[in-house]
Amino acid sequence: MLNRSVSALNYFGGKEWEALLFEKHHKWGHALNSSQAFAVNLFGPARFFPDVAKSLWSALPAAQAHPNPDRVVVHFEYSGPDEDFAKTELGEAGIPTQIDVAVEGIFPDDIRRMQFIEVKLTESGFGSCRGAKRGEKAPNPAPERCGDLSKILPSPSTQCWLAEVEGQGRQYWKFIGSTTSGLDTKADKNGGCPWKGGLYQVIRNWALARAMLDRGIVASVNLAVCIHPGNHAAANLSTEVSGAKCGGCL
Amino acid sequence: MGAAFNAMSKQMTVSECDPRTIITAQEQGGAPTAWKDYMFCRYLPAELCGGSP
Questions:
Q1: One-letter-per-residue 3-state SS of chain A
Q2: Closest partner residue to B30 among A51, A59, A226, by Cβ?
Q3: Is residue B7, in this structure, part of any structural domain at all?
Q4: A70 and A189 part of one domain
Q5: Is A61 on the interface with B (CB under 8 A)?
């Protein structure tokens, strides 16, 4: 663990690279095993050099369908096209959804396509929704509601704590539940909300992508997880996301 | 977990990317060799450290 006063030592390019985060440092961003620092170090060259960025694009899943953009821009801790997007579209009044790395490919006629990347160095999961927590300090006064997806789906505004918090409530269900969303939400093995477990961060990223697509801000978004090869917990994480174990690539 | 995410999502499924692929792609685009060495030595298996001539 580095002292916070010398946290710039956690980055290949020192203070210049640390500044790419625009003060959006994670609580443990000064830790040597910080995924945030790993992400900046891993994608940093593409942020500074246009040719490097175009070469990076060619290696991303998004390039399979859309190769050779005119220009590529790399963003860290990305929350949408402007500061208010996540608040306005997703109802996130507090800290918005922040994609670790968003790579934006700009094509002829200013068509924009994006690759969202969640980076995991040593973390073992995608976080959990606080609404399902129980106990004295649980924020949700009725967490038992999370146990029955069949009641949440028809009425998220009354059955999901997330839809009640922060004034207007989180708007995730507006995107998740839409018949045209492309998402067919299935209950977990106990019939409960699937987002109360380790898929929460994934669905937040997905909702941000869906909102940007629905507003016509981007023509397509690909989602990916980039996991350190020594992070063996990622095997389970991969199963959670894809439903099948990765054939030795992790 | 029950349902896996990609089984629910038909239009935007989640892919995986390997950090080693990300490093190689940027090196091929002209990223500094010193950066590649830094990444290999700090983050990746020891046998990859010191591989540059």
A1: CCCHHHHHHHCCCHHHHHHHHCCCCCCCCCCCCCHHHHHHHHHHHHHHCHHHHHHHHHCCCHHHHCCCCCEEEEEEEECCCCCCHHHHHHCCCCCCCCEEEEEEEEEHHHEEEEEEEEEECCCCCCCCCHHHCCCCCCCCCCHHHHHCHHHHCCCHHHHCHHHCCCCCCCCHHHHHCCCCCCECCCCCCCCCCHHHCCCHHHHHHHHHHHHHHHCCCCCEEEEEEEECCCCCCHHHHHHHHHCCCCCCCC
A2: A51
A3: no
A4: no
A5: yes
